[in-house]
Specification:
The complex is a heterodimer of chains A (112) and B (114). By secondary structure, chain A is mainly beta. In chain A, 0% of the residues lie in helices and 56% in strands. Chain A is built from no helices and eleven strands. In chain A, the strands form two sheets. In chain A, strands 2, 4, 5, 9, 10 and 11 form a six-stranded mixed sheet that branches. In chain A, strands 1-3-8-7-6 form a five-stranded antiparallel sheet, with no helix packed on it. Chain A starts with a strand and ends with a strand. With 114 residues, chain B is mainly β. Chain B is built from no helices and eleven strands. In chain B, strand 7 and strand 8 form a beta hairpin. Chain B is globular, with a radius of gyration of 13 Å. The N and C termini of chain B lie far apart (33 Å). The chains are: A mainly beta (112), B mainly beta (114). Chains A and B meet through strand 5 of A and strand 5 of B.
Chain lengths: 112, 114
């Protein structure tokens, strides 16, 4: 079983739609959680951290449910520029040195 | 100028050849990493280094070696390339002690082993 699992998608949504991605992680000792964004043929970049209390950054909202070991990302009012692959990332757990463990990514395609 | 650079950006080679991928950074970070990315598998850690004298194996180090020549340089070698090492390779850096342990990635090297 992968340590971090995501639905690979693609999620095809129209502009203006609200879309949500979930991610599950297997190691209950995982400590920190993030979403990275990766554009096609580009490098990943940090999108936002995920906190137990939930956090919002503009149109993006991230939530963490430790009891169920899942993380979510909600994107409101989708823009064409949101088209990318979203990588769920956790640290701690089985990795020494606070290494990042990446999910396989969820691909989002926003259509006009 | 990019903070993390990788050379070459693309490489096609044959089975059995020795390949070196280079990574340089101007961010002044102590920590550097090499990952490979395969479709559907996410990024997997090959090796990492927390300073010039520190080298650690990651999840999938077999068939690879690294050298940390300086704080700013971290190279990845494939001593005898094989086709299942065809992948997208990323170098990354980070600074210790940051709340997010954010890693900054280079643009990637697309390696094809025939």
């Amino acid at each position: 079983r992968k340590e971090v699992e995501q639905d690979p998608g693609p999620f095809n949504v129209p502009e203006g739609a609200t879309v949500a991605f979930n991610c599950t992680y297997s190691n209950s000792a995982s400590q920190s959680f993030f979403w990275y964004r990766q554009d096609c043929r580009k490098e990943p970049k940090l999108l936002m951290s995920v906190y137990s209390s939930g956090n919002e950054d503009g149109r993006f909202t991230a939530q963490l449910n430790r009891a169920s070991q899942y993380i979510s990302l909600l994107i409101r009012d989708s823009k064409l520029s949101d088209s990318a692959t979203y990588l769920c990332v956790v640290t701690g757990g089985s990795n020494a040195g606070n290494m990042l463990t990446f999910g396989g990514g969820t691909r989002l395609m926003v259509k006009p | 100028d990019a903070d993390v650079t990788q050379t070459p950006r693309n490489r096609i080679t044959k089975t059995g050849k020795r390949i070196m991928l280079e990574c340089s950074q101007t961010k002044g970070h102590d920590r550097m990493y090499w990952y490979r990315q395969d479709p559907g598998l996410g990024l997997r850690l090959i090796y990492y280094s927390f300073d010039v004298k520190d080298i650690n194996k990651g999840e999938i180090s077999d068939g690879y070696s690294v050298s940390r020549q300086a704080q700013a340089k971290f190279s990845l070698s494939l001593e005898s390339a094989i086709p299942n090492q065809t992948a997208l390779y990323f170098c990354a850096t980070s600074a210790p002690g940051t709340p997010t342990n954010e890693q900054f990635f280079g643009p990637g090297t697309r390696l094809t082993v025939l």
